[in-house]
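Below is a filled-in request sheet from our internal design queue. Each sheet records the structural input a requester submitted and the sequence that came back. We keep these sheets so that new team members can see what a complete request looks like end to end.

REQUESTER: design group, bay 2
PRIORITY: normal
MODE: inverse folding
CHAIN LENGTH: 605
BACKBONE (tokenized):
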């Protein structure tokens, strides 16, 4: 998704503009294709740039930022990233974005019609590429506005704490934007005939139509070969050529120098331009966007700003799942495109206005809640994220040992457990995983957002722990994590956690969630053996800003799968190499007694 996709609110009339297509050379001589829209007959223009692997628009009509920028006297440029659209070279996701982006910024700043100042914007991949370019410190770059932007792809988005974000990874890799586009380029280059190209498209579409089965098929490491096995590719081409990153990514479960080579987080201290970071509570890139904001706030000399709505990656309306959060909750009602223009006017045009006119930091979030008639929300401004007044609050998991089978047994209490409390136990069956129901999702046939979780909580492979009815409202504002003492009889396995708001009438709405692969419980950069006995596992559940009214409950769900969002763990030491014959169930235990505590930590205002 791009933060410049078609907007539903009224667009400003666009002054007469001209459209020019150019190619320019990257640092290694590769030709990159760029399209520039600019007001007719004007010069000394600031420029806004979006670099995208998803295709340049033919015109700016209906595009939120582009339409406003042209009307305000900016030039707007869209560039096909390397190996996409009309740009030459091979598409290797994010490998060349730093040098290519820097070269493009400097090329634009040097045009005769330019005033030498460039801002970058865009969402998802066009958001993350801004960080790479900014770390190169190109002449002319004045500001970046990464919306819905990934950060470390090994930490979230495509992978998360050892697990594969299977739904997103598969749909993005096999979809039209990546594998499908590669098929089109090979066809245009006469390396695929029409019949073979059509067969490849059909095979890719069929795999996505059967997304749940595709994400659970094994071994995952050779998924493109199995999806395209019936396609008669010509000599010199393999299924791996259509998805060139698949092998490199799925054969490296551990964070290493390969992943480091396109991880923007180590480069934060090289980024010295202001940033506007926008994300949503049910947004696939929430973790990445918040990490980018926090890292640059701490390590960049330039001001950084953050906005978090209730949105998902491809849904910026006020209704996300089963709930709507009020008339002001949508991106259009909030005015996110106009906010971009105030940001660029301030830092690119050097004409401060709006919330950026002062020296303060803009941090705004929509505080969600569940009211009697559905969802509700209120925009709130903070001094930082998390707010400096917020404090961690710890709730201990307690039960009589039947939290997986009795909803009334598992409890969340402020009092630490005593000795000899019985552990809870369940069986994780990889062939019958806990289904994904909402959450921060993208790009598959499972919808993101807020949904009633009661059907999932009735499963005997899901443990639930619930607070007493709250005597006072609780306002959660910041990160959430679960610290679990667990054990398994498998060589490796997963543990998942989900925070839920239970209303007075019993509905259970998901707020945030996470996963941890046991062999990576000490960090993604080192794999360790799983012991025969208890081990400590921390699950990062990302961020939330939510108010739970008095009389309602908080609930924590603990399980070992969440599919198809994540790949169901087969119970082997090499899960992405496992075949159907290797799959085995895992018997899991969760401890909650003295010296083996398990707890939930929320951030509370």
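RETURNED SEQUENCE:
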């Amino acid at each position: 998704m791009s933060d410049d996709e078609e907007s539903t609110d009224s667009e400003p009339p666009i002054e007469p503009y001209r459209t020019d297509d150019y190619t320019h050379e990257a640092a290694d001589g590769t030709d990159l294709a760029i399209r520039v829209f600019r007001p007719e007959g004007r010069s000394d223009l600031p420029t806004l740039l979006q670099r995208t692997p998803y295709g340049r628009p033919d015109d700016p009509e209906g595009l939120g930022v582009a339409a406003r920028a042209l009307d305000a006297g900016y030039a707007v440029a869209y560039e096909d990233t390397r190996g996409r659209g009309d740009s030459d070279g091979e598409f290797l996701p994010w490998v060349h974005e730093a040098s290519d982006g820097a070269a493009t910024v400097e090329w634009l700043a040097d045009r005769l019609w330019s005033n030498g100042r460039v801002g970058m914007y865009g969402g998802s991949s066009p958001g993350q590429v801004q960080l790479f370019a900014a770390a190169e410190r190109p002449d002319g770059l004045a500001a970046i506005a990464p919306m819905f932007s990934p950060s470390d792809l090994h930490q979230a988005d495509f992978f998360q704490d050892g697990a594969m974000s299977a739904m997103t990874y598969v749909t993005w890799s096999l979809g039209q934007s990546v594998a499908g586009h590669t098929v089109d380029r090979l066809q245009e280059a006469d390396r695929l005939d029409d019949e073979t190209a059509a067969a490849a498209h059909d095979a890719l579409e069929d795999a996505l139509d059967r997304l749940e089965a595709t994400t659970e098929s094994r071994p995952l490491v050779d998924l493109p070969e199995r999806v395209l096995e019936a396609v008669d590719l010509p000599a010199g081409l393999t299924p791996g050529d259509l998805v060139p990153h698949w092998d490199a990514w799925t054969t490296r479960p551990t964070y290493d120098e390969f992943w480091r080579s396109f991880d923007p987080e180590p480069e934060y201290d090289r980024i010295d331009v202001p940033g506007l970071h926008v994300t949503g509570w049910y947004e696939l890139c929430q973790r990445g966007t918040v990490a980018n904001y926090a890292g640059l706030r701490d390590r960049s000399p330039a001001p950084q700003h953050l906005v978090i709505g209730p949105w998902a990656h491809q849904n910026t309306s006020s209704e996300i799942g089963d709930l709507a959060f009020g008339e002001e909750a949508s991106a259009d009602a909030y005015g996110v495109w106009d906010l971009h223009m105030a940001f660029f006017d301030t830092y690119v045009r050097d004409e401060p206005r709006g919330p950026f006119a002062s020296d303060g930091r803009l941090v705004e979030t929509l505080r969600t809640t569940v009211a009697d008639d559905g969802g509700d929300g209120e925009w709130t401004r903070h001094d930082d994220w998390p707010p400096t007044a917020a404090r961690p609050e710890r709730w201990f998991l307690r039960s009589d040992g039947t939290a997986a089978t009795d909803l009334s047994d598992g409890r969340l209490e402020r009092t630490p457990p005593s000795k000899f409390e019985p552990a809870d136990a369940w069986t994780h069956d990889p062939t019958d995983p806990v289904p994904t129901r909402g959450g921060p999702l993208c790009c598959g046939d499972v919808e993101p957002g807020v949904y009633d979780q009661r059907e999932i909580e009735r499963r005997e492979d899901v443990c639930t722990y619930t607070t007493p009815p709250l005597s006072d409202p609780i306002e959660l504002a910041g990160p959430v994590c679960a610290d679990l003492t667990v054990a398994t009889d498998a060589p490796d396995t997963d543990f998942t956690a989900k925070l839920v708001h239970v209303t007075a009438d019993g509905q259970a709405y998901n707020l945030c969630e996470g996963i941890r692969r046991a062999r990576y419980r000490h960090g993604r950069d080192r794999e360790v053996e799983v012991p025969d006995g208890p081990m400590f596992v921390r699950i990062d559940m990302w961020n939330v800003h939510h108010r739970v009214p008095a009389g309602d409950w908080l609930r924590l769900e603990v399980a070992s799968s969440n599919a198809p969002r994540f790949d169901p763990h087969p119970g082997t030491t090499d899960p992405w190499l496992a075949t159907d014959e290797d799959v085995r169930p895992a018997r899991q235990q969760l401890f909650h007694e003295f010296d083996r505590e398990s707890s939930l930590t929320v951030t509370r205002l």
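SHEET NOTES:
- The radius of gyration is 24 Å.
- The CA atoms of residues 376 and 605 lie 18 Å apart.
FILED BY: M.R.
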